[in-house]
Every structure is written in structure tokens, then in C-alpha cells.
Amino acid sequence: MNEIDEEEFKKLFPNLYKEIIKKKMSLRIDSIRTEEGEKNFKEMKKHETYMPSAIDYLRRCENDKEGEEVISYLEEKGEISHEYAEELRIQLREKGIRSFGSKKEDGYYLREWGEY
Hints:
about 55% helix; extended; single chain; about 120 residues
């Protein structure tokens, strides 16, 4: 595959270039899971205590108000930094609670790990 330099990319894709430079519409990606990776993750988590991330907690929220409460709580307890809390708030405000992923219902992990 041929590489193009920044100026050529800017000419060919001016709007995309602006979005990339301004980091407009960007989302933090904590991980990427392949089918094999997902299988390994499920197997590994069966045998250890899983510590949920801020995103895991947000995915249990019903609405944006609950999401804001979760972010504030995690920030106050020192579980997440102020900077990360602000990133989460911006995403919540601009894109809503479901932008963090589909809602995780009760028993989610038990079903995912085949124990339910």
C-alpha cells in the first residue's frame, strides 16, 4: 500500500483532516476485542475478580443524569482523574449515555461467562 504525505492527505480529504487535527468527534477506545480475544477474556475472568472500569459502570446507567452521578462519584473517590472525568462528561453531554455502549443488565457477567 502506498503512503501519502500529510499535505496530499489534506488536499484529498480536507474535512477528515480537520477532524483528525482538531480531534473532533473522537472517542477513547479502551480495548479492541477479536473473537479469540473475547473467548480468552471470558475464560480468564472466570478465575479472577473482575474490577469494572468507569465505562462498565456507565453502561449500567438508565439515563444521562445517572451517568453524571457515576462520573462525579468515581472522580470524588479518586477512581478516575479529573481530566478523564471531564472527557467522559463531554462525551455524555454531546452523545448521551448509550455512546458508552449498550446497557448492561443484571447478570451480564454471569451470562457472558456462561455461569448463569
